[in-house]
Amino acid sequence: MAINRKILFFVTEDWYFFSHRLHIAEALKEDGFEVILLTRVHQHKKIIENQGIRVIPIDLKRESRNLFQEIKTIFKVAGVYKKEKPHLVHHVAAKPILYGSIAARVASIPLYVNAFAGLGFVFLQKKELKSILVRWIFILAYRFIFHSKAAYAIFQNPEDKCLFESLKIVKKNRSTLIRGSGVDISHYRFFKEPEGRVTILLGARMLWDKGIGELVQAVKILQEKKIIFRVLLAGIPDPANPNSVDGQTLQKWHNQGIIEWIGYQEDMAQVLSRVHIATLPSYGEGVPKFLIEAAACGRPIVTTDVPGCREIVHHNKNGILVPVRNYYALADSLLKLIKDSELREKMGACGRAMVIKSFSEKIVAEKTMAFYKTIWNKKVWR
Q: Any residues with CB less than 8 A from the CB of 210 and at least 6 apart, and which?
């Protein structure tokens, strides 16, 4: 008798699953799995369901500080787990990892994988007493949820993996490294440079720790030198994140002619086809999908020499790495690419080759499936 193999993904937002994890779910479907998604529903429910994935809505409030409401949410998740009885649960991002892991233990889920897409603002904050206390609360919570033979982890860069091992949160033999979420290299194809004024693009949630402020300062330096170029910011604020840049500030910069804020963009490949350079002066990432997309489209990159970003950018190969929070170095590196079209072309071609070799959706899906098979009881896979 065939085993009804079932995997449940718990992700904060349906759009994030659609953008970052759908290809993995599709690979699982092809391998005979039933795939379920537990998430907050916005606009992508029908699109996901059309791929044969059952969607269970949950009202997960990322910004909530109501302890009673949060405990109630954990029990709701546990109720879903008990009802569905998945063989494996895959949690993505901080709140699903924390709440989902507790729920998995309550519901006696045999295996759960916690996938970290970066470590979040808690691990990026300054060394103030409050920040240190919050960080240690998270460390103790993570130690608790990983103190289970059912718990495993996926990290996107080696620094995050090593940090969690050094903090005695995760054991080496209970985690793996899978760089990024992958991109569709047929959609994010190589584009020749457009004609006209050199245009720089930053694509991300509008957060201060994405280096938005540093980019604005770098742009001001170049504008004072009368350099002719444009800068586009693609993305929207994230009010649930304490590091969000408010819309009024973005609009003010737009009105002052410092940047052009173009908001959320459904098709980033088309936006990338119209620009010359990609930048993300972030304070730290998992592996930023925007930079993988940019490299896939043949765009040279200026980013910071921090965990995650240096996974996709090799200095002076497919882009330039600059010190974090250093807008002078950022301005100099952007200027170097603005002035040198041959260098842009060379770096763009190198980036495209790198993505094809290491960062395609197919490669990421295969590595994820291989990890599942490594940790899973072999009889489930027969």
A: 202, 204, 280, 281, 282, 283
List phi, psi (to 5°) of 22: -60, -40
CB neighbours of residue 91 within 10 Å: 30
CA distance 119 to 108: 26
Q: Among positive and negative, which fits the CA dihedral 182, 186, 187, 190?
A: positive
Distance, first Cα to last Cα, the chain: 11
What's the length of the chain? 382
Domain ranges of the chain: 6-182+360-381, 199-358
Q: Please give the Cα distance from 291 to 321 (Å, whole number).
A: 12
3-state percent helix, strand, coil for the chain, nearest multiple of 5 = 45, 20, 35
Tell how far CA 295 is from the center of its chain: 16
The number of beta carbons lying within 10 Å of the beta carbon of residue 21 is: 23
Do 6-182+360-381 and 199-358 share a fold? yes
Question: What whole-number distance in Å separates Cα of residue 149 and Cα of residue 108?
Answer: 11
Measured distance CA(277)–CA(231) in Å, rounded? 9
Q: Look up the CATH number of domain 6-182+360-381.
A: 3.40.50.2000
Structure tokens at 241: 């994140």
**DSSP secondary structure, 206-229, as one string:** BBGGGTHHHHHHHHHHHHHTT---
Query: What count of other Cβ atoms lies within 10 Å of the Cβ of residue 367?
Result: 17
Structure-block tokens of residue 28: 């699982």
Each residue of 86-102: pLDDT tens digit?
999 999 998 999 999 99
Which CATH class, in words, describes the domain spanning 199-358? alpha beta
Taking 70 as the pLDDT cut, the residues of the chain under it are 1-3, 62-64, 120-122, 124-127, 377-382
165: closest CA among 175, 177, 150?
175
| Cross-strand bridge partners of residue 34 | 6
Structure tokens at 301: 């990159």
Q: Quote the pTM value.
A: 0.91
CA 279 to chain centre: 16
